[in-house]
Amino acid sequence: QKEVEQNSGPLSVPEGAIASLNCTYSDRVSQSFFWYRQYSGKSPELIMSIYSNGDKEDGRFTAQLNKASQYVSLLIRDSQPSDSATYLCAVSDGNNRLAFGKGNQVVVIP
Amino acid sequence: DAMVIQNPRYQVTQFGKPVTLSCSQTLNHNVMYWYQQKSSQAPKLLFHYYDKDFNNEADTPDNFQSRRPNTSFCFLDIRSPGLGDAAMYLCATSLAGGNNEQFFGPGTRLTVL
After folding, report:
1. In this predicted model, what pLDDT tens digit does every residue of A51-104 receive, in sequence order?
2. Contact state of B42 with A101 under an 8 Å Cβ cutoff
3. How many CB atoms lie within 10 A of CB B72?
4. Would you call A96 an interface residue with chain B, using a CB distance cutoff of 8 Å?
5. Beta-ladder partners of A38
6. Is A101 helix (H, G, I), strand (E, B) or coil?
7. Tens of pLDDT, residues A29-44
């Protein structure tokens, strides 16, 4: 069974600091990786997609992928209170399905 | 703007009373998904349609059914809702043959009394 692990508990960061989230996955053949942001009571919103090893930056977000080590991470720079949400890591199985991690809650403290 | 729409946003039903949730999309995506998400849990895939081909997940209860009458619309039918079916139901779409980026609708919050 394909698994996506997000093991860190809730993450509290001061406003303006960097929030770092990690995700590991079990299926070596996975090719597509995503980070979704989900506010309480709302649906997931796609914020980052990454397909190649290395870093991908989009505004204050940076996704990092290391296929050899089977992990993908998300950095949020200059964290804002509006970044307080749950962040879901998702990995494509190549058959039109995504496997989701359980999510990491981020709380940005003003 | 192209989008995924779900109706209703909130649905209250009684134990055992059938309910239908709807999803429509203007993205012209050929894959549509239904997820169930309970509090503090990851979205759980119930089934998906690749065009007209229905793909059920092995652990989806028979109580859950789906219909896709055309490319734009997809319905989730819960034949006899139980208290354990109270959840957020999420519809998502993607373009097959791409990178499987999935875009979610706003969700329907189902309450079972």
Report:
1. 999 999 999 999 999 999 999 999 999 999 999 999 999 999 878 899 999 999
2. yes
3. 16
4. yes
5. A86
6. coil
7. 888 999 999 999 999 9
Q: Is residue A77 a contact partner of residue A20, using CB atoms and an 8 Å limit?
A: no
Closest chain B C-alpha to A97 CA, distance in angstroms: 7
Summarised one tens digit per residue, pLDDT across range B3-21 is 999 999 999 999 999 999 9
**Residue B25 sits at the chain A interface (C-beta within 8 Å):** no
Name which of A94, A27, A88, A72 is nearest B98 in CA terms: A94
Residue A105, helix vs strand vs coil: strand
User: Looking at CA atoms only, how far is residue B80 from chain A in angstroms?
Assistant: 25
Distance from CA of B85 to the nearest CA of A (A): 17
Is the CB of B90 inside 8 Å of chain A's CB atoms?
Answer: yes
SS3 A98: strand
